[in-house]
Amino acid sequence: MTMKAPVTLLFVVLALQGELCAQPNDLLTRIWTGVQQAQNKFTSGCGKITETRTSKLLLKPLVFHGKFCFEGMARFALEYSEPDSVRIRFNGDYLNVTVGDDRHTEIMKVGASVRRTQSYFSKENSIENLRKNFAIDVREDGQTFEMKLVPRSARFGAALNYLVVKLGKGDFLPRSLEVDGKSGVNSVFLIDITSVNSTIAPGTFEVSRPK
User: Fold this and answer.
1) Which CATH architecture has domain 4-196?
2) What average pLDDT score do residues 45-65 get?
3) How far apart are the C-alpha atoms of 142 and 122, rounded to whole Å?
């Protein structure tokens, strides 16, 4: 699996997060209310991330350590420093992936796709769309809320077996994300948000565009 695959799926999770909780039961209503409050309260943030990647083709799990920052739903930066240098930037329309010594950056125009997914799950029939595309299980797990999404439709099921998102009960911020892909690769992202609503350095979300 290339680096862009789990990142693209992460965008899907972010696009869905606001809608997957809007179903009529008490637990989901609690989560929905908390997520909405968190989105209004925490408009930006930075933190640390650890990805553990497993596959039958790997002799042992690969563990990546890095840091990230976000601003709203349209600006995101992720940089892995170990074991290899990988830098990912998303800013509105373009996703940049740079591996190694900055000699080559892959530029992908994904903004329209992200906005289309967000729109698909934010219209008046969003719940019907969500139920049509995913089987959803939501539960309390210790200090977190856990949400598992299993694709029903080929639209998402072609690349994805399931997603699991965990949110903190106190602040409704993400604690972890598990992405299990059809490629046989499973990635678990442990997320530690260390600052919110803080000043983010200029250029953090700067991306290259096609010349």
Assistant:
1) Clam (2.50)
2) 93
3) 30
